[in-house]
Specification:
Shape: globular
Helix content: 10-25%
Order of helices and strands: EHEHEHEEHEEEEE
Low-confidence stretches: none
Mean pLDDT: 96
Strand order of the largest sheet: 3-2-1-9-10
Distance between the termini: 24 Å
CATH architecture: 4-Layer Sandwich
Number of strands: 10
Radius of gyration: 14 Å
Number of domains: 1
CATH superfamily: Metallo-dependent phosphatases
Length: about 160
């Protein structure tokens, strides 16, 4: 079983000085980190990379520095599964429809942007937005996500802080 911490919209240092302690506790229990953008500044990306293998994309609020080192979307292979990673764009209510057109031949699409958690399967594809662990704009709670990947399937879980 592979466990992945999924983050997005951390907005550090704009809305918080650091990630919540529970997120750091979770990092000790995972194999890798996927971040769907909107770090804001490079320091938290650098910190995460020192703690676990980290794959990330940039979001609309990310600095020029991050835009030079990260891509707007990535394909991540974990075991036999292909995972699309993108921040997202446009109206929050249409995000699943928006991001589903960005990838072909994927088993899951990880996205952010809306700060609102999503964990649904549509046409055999897992659409997973972990929400935001630091910012409650457009959401009532702070959240992050966990993906558990076995030989047979990908399961997503939203964790409320």
């Amino acid at each position: 079983m592979i466990r992945i911490l999924v983050l997005s919209d951390t907005h550090i240092p704009r809305v918080a000085s650091d990630l919540p302690g529970k997120v750091y506790e979770e990092i000790t229990k995972v194999d890798m980190i996927l971040h769907a953008g909107d770090f804001v500044e490079k320091e938290i990306f650098d910190k995460l990379k020192t703690l676990r293998q980290t794959r990330a994309v940039y979001g609309n609020m990310d600095s020029t520095t991050l835009r030079h080192i990260l891509n707007p979307k990535e394909m991540v292979q974990v075991g036999k599964f292909n995972i699309g990673l993108i921040h997202g764009y446009g109206p929050p209510r249409d995000l699943v429809e928006t991001v589903e057109h960005e990838f072909k031949n994927v088993d899951a699409i990880i996205f952010g942007h809306s700060h609102s958690p999503t964990n649904i399967v549509k046409d055999g594809i897992l659409f997973f937005n972990p929400g935001s662990p630091t910012d409650k704009i457009f959401a009532t709670t702070n959240t992050y996500g966990i993906l558990e990947i076995s030989d047979a399937k990908i399961d997503g879980k939203i964790v409320t802080l």
